Sequence to fold (499 residues):
Amino acid sequence: MGGAGLGLAAACAVATCAIATVMVAHRVRSRRRWGRAVALVREFEEACATSVGRLRQVVDAMAVEMHAGLASEGGSKLRMLLTFIDNLPDGSEEGTYYALDLGGTNFRVLQIQFSGKGSMILTHRVQRQQISQELMTGTREELFNFIASTLKQFVQREDDGIDQIPDVRKDLGFTFSFPVRQLSVSSGLLIKWTKGFSIKDAVGKDVAQCLTEAMLKTGLNMRVAALVNDTVGTLALGHYYDVDTVAAVIIGTGTNACYLERTDAIIKYQGLLTNSGDMVVNMEWGNFWSSHLPRTPYDISLDDESPNRNEQGFEKMISGMYLGEIVRRVLQRMAEESDIFPDAVQNLSVPFVIRTPLMAAMHEDDSPDLREVGKILEDHLKISGVSLKARRLLVRVCDIVTRRAARLAAAGIVGILKKIGRDGSAGVASGRTKGKPRRTVVAVEGGLYVGYSMFREYLNEAVAEILGEEVAPYVCLRVCEDGSGTGAAVLAAAYSSNR
Ligand code: ADP
Ligand code: MG
Fold:
């Protein structure tokens, strides 16, 4: 080999060496970055831990806050609002009743015919209507005139004479899912608007009266028999089907709960009398807070950047509005500090790009190569080239967020049961007959609970885990869809003046 050849060989060896060094360095860096991503997920998982011990602390905190909220106005972050509902339907309601549902995804008008026995519904007619942006931000007269005229057209179309005597006043259940200070079963003052509504001249007004006036103007002979929110409607419908139902929980875009309380436990309204000695209390539990809740830096930044900072703390860890957003915040940090989502920092920095149903679809991808996760990342988030092991890590993040949410909601439910002596802890003194715990049903409604099976499974599992095997078989969670529509109609039947 000549000198030139030797030189070339040496140069080649140096180059090979350099390439190898670069490759090794790259691999080391990449492994370190991967390690960083794994470490972030591990830290997050630890911060979200919900051991049964911690859940029991949340149970106790919920029961304590319920007491405080019942003791005095403003005594707790739980508002514990009176509803004046003292009798729940039992399946014997009879006749045709109407309902309005305002405050969910769509405005709806319903007509429901109850058979009179055996919790049977004979006919169920619904009309959905969008409320325009102008109506949401206009005047109260415009909104209620629109509602009354929609109702009138619906009644004229659906009222076929069966079961209806002309000129007899019809009863209506009005589900109005905004904060209301209730004055009676059928009246209440609007405290404030939420969900994009902003009609200034309606705040502080009795919304049932606004509707009644509008109905009179259109010539509708109807009466608001019950003014409720969606949670109370769900409890009513649950009780219509099963009289052991004592509480209702909504887990959809937001979350809330209500339950049947003894009036003598409602200390802030001493002397409150009802026929049954009970009253449904609307907890507004989305605003629950306790230092025992496992809070992470991602929850804190989500809250800081929200329009209602320091409010709805429980809701921000549990409900459909937020779960996908918590996942996004974790993924964004992983993208910033590792290279597992190539070029995705920008796409993951858009608030709320990961909606909860999308998160659920990724979480529930059961294909061995997580094909669906890859497809969602590409189609919805414009992130491509994510490795299988990174996709697995992403699914783990979804799992952590959902598991925590479901288990905290479960602790909230057991907190209610504890408050009313149905969790087995009060012993023979309350809630037990013949040495056995009493059968207890909780009605559950909402898109998150109904549509996200992993969430539902985690929640049910946690309720059983907290209660223990002796009591758990006596507690049943029952899906009760459309409490805000059918539930309001059955309440109208229960509180009908014609009954
Ligand atoms: P609302 O709360 O407006 O009355 P729903 O009870 O139907 O409406 O809840 C809708 C919410 O539930 C959605 O905003 C979404 O967050 C959540 N959701 C609905 N379907 C699913 C699903 N399949 N997986 C996960 N979350 C879902
Ligand atoms: Mg709803």
The chain has a mean pLDDT of 91.
